Amino acid sequence: MRKLLISCLAIASLALPSAANAADIPRPAYKAPPPPVVASIYNWSGIYIGGHVGAGWGNKWWNTTETTICELFSDIGACSNPESPFNPNNLNIVPGNSLGTTSVDGFLGGGQVGFNWQTGLFVWGVEADASWTNMKGQFPCIFTLLTCSSKIDWIATVVGRVGVTVLDRILVYGGGGGAWAHEKDRVDFFGVTFDGFVIPPFSFSGSDNKWGWTFLAGTEYAFAPNWSIKLQYNYYQFGRHNVHLTQDTDICAPFLPEGCIPPGTALSNADTQLRIHSIKLGLNYRFTWGKAPVVASY
C-alpha cells in the first residue's frame, strides 16, 4: 500500500508542471483586417493646350429653288432676249431642283485649348479647337455645262466633354457643341456654242462662314505626368446655307440685254448643305490643377 501511494505521488508531481506551463501559454490575439490600400490615380484636372493633325471627308449638296436655267440666271438677264439659246423657259434643270452633289476631302491640322475637372473616375471639361484644311471637291453641274466646286479653309468648334478613366491613365470621352467653317464656292463655265451663239468662259465665286453643330468621341492616353496623346472622331453638320456668288469676269454674248455683263453681278439663287467627318491625332500638355483623386482598393 505504501508503495502504491508513493507511485501515485510521483506521477502527480510530473503532471503538475506540465499543467502549469499550459496555463501560462497566452491565447492567440484577434487581428483586425488590414486597412484598404489607398492608391492615387492620374490627375486629369487642369488647363491644357495642344495641337493635332488629321484628315477630313464629306459631302456637299447644291440645290436651287429655281426650276429653269432662265430663272437660275435671271440676275444676268440670260433669257431676257427671245433669241437666247436658253429658251424656252420651261427647260428643267433636273428633277427635285438639285444641282448635284460633290465629295470633299483633304488634310487638316490645328490646335486646341481646354479645361478638365476630375471627380473620382469621371472627367468633365470644355474645349475649343480650330483646324486649317485643304478639303475640296468639284463636280459637273447643270447639264455638265458648268463646274461647281468648293473648298473648306478652316473648321472651328466649342464643345462640352465628359469622360471616364480606364486603367488609370486612359480616358474615354464623348461630347458635342457648336461648329463653324469658312468655305469658298465657285461656278465655272468653260464656253460653248449654240446654233451660232458663242458664249465665252465666265465664272462666279464667293466665300461664306457657315455655322452648325458637331458631336465627337475619342480616347486619350497620359504617357507622362503632364503629357497625353489622343485619337478623336468628329461629325459636323452645317445645315442649309445660301450661296452668295458674284461674277469674276465679263460675260459677253449677243443675246444679253447690254451685250456684256460686268464683274460683280450677283448670282445667289442656289444654296448648299455640308456634312463632314474627321479623324484627329492630337498631343496635349496639361497644367495640373489640384491634387490627384484617390481610389481605395482591398
Descriptive account of the structure:
The longest helix has 23 residues. Helix content is 9%, strand content 62%. It is mainly β. The chain contains 2 helices and 14 strands. The protein is rod-shaped and about 120 Å long. The two termini are 69 Å apart. Strands 2-3-4-5-6-9-10-13 form an 8-stranded antiparallel barrel. A two-stranded antiparallel ribbon has the order 1-14. A hairpin with a 7-residue loop joins strand 11 and strand 12. The protein has a domain of 195 residues.
> Average pLDDT, to the nearest integer?
78
Q: List how many beta strands DSSP finds.
A: 14
How much β-strand is present in the residues?
over 45%
Biggest sheet character: 8 strands, antiparallel, barrel
**How are helices and strands ordered from N to C?**
HEEHEEEEEEEEEEEE
Q: Based on CA inertia axes, which overall geometry fits?
A: rod-shaped
The end-to-end span amounts to: 69 Å
Catalogue the unreliable spans.
Answer: 87-96, 294-298
- The strands making up the biggest β-sheet line up spatially as 2-3-4-5-6-9-10-13
The total count of helices amounts to 2
The radius of gyration computed from the alpha-carbon positions, rounded to a whole number of angstroms, is 39 Å
The secondary-structure class comes to: mainly beta
Portion of residues within helices:
under 10%
In short:
The protein is mainly beta.
Write the layout of secondary structure elements.
Blueprint: H1 2-24, E1 37-40, E2 46-64, H2 69-72, E3 98-119, E4 122-141, E5 146-166, E6 170-189, E7 192-194, E8 197-199, E9 202-222, E10 227-247, E11 251-252, E12 260-261, E13 266-288, E14 294-297
Antiparallel strand pairs: 1-14, 2-3, 2-13, 3-4, 4-5, 5-6, 6-9, 7-8, 9-10, 10-13, 11-12
